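Researcher: I need the complex structure. Ligand is zinc ion. Inputs:
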Amino acid sequence: MPFYPVLLCKACGSQPSWLPFPSPDETTQRKVPWPRDGKPRHFVCPRCSRGCEYSAEDCHWLHVGSPDQVLPSKPLAVYRISFPCDKERCAGLMHIQALMTEGLPRQAFLHVLFRAYLINISCERGHVRSGPWRGNGPIEVQQDSNWDLQCLQRLTA
Ligand SMILES: [Zn+2]
Ligand SMILES: [Zn+2]
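Model: Output:
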């Protein structure tokens, strides 16, 4: 009976993302596929655009009838979108994560950021903020290499 790791959106309760996991063995052992540093990550829900903080304890295990149901039709990856904190004179960055199809244009990630509604997201220096990002400055997008490559397509549409 295969179980697969998911994060349930803290704001709308939908299933935003299947978490990537390193190997089928680890799936059966139900080892949470979280980056080794164990730090929380700010995931943006693809349905409601709320960005909340998640940690390994937020991982849920969902039973699926067959692994075919969750095989990705397109490769997915965890991306990290980094942007300057909009608190005055703060030089820290804020980071949010999005699980997205590989190879999308930069515009797609900017769209995620501009639509996002952050909920208690903190910058590197500890400023906590909620609401849409109103700052400006350089926005960086990179594939988050702290997650293993294998990702799964969402089961439900
Ligand atoms: Zn949501
Ligand atoms: Zn700050």
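Model: Summary of the prediction. The pocket of zinc ion (ligand 1) is lined by residues 9, 11-12, 14, 16, 45, 47-48, 50 (CB under 6 Å).
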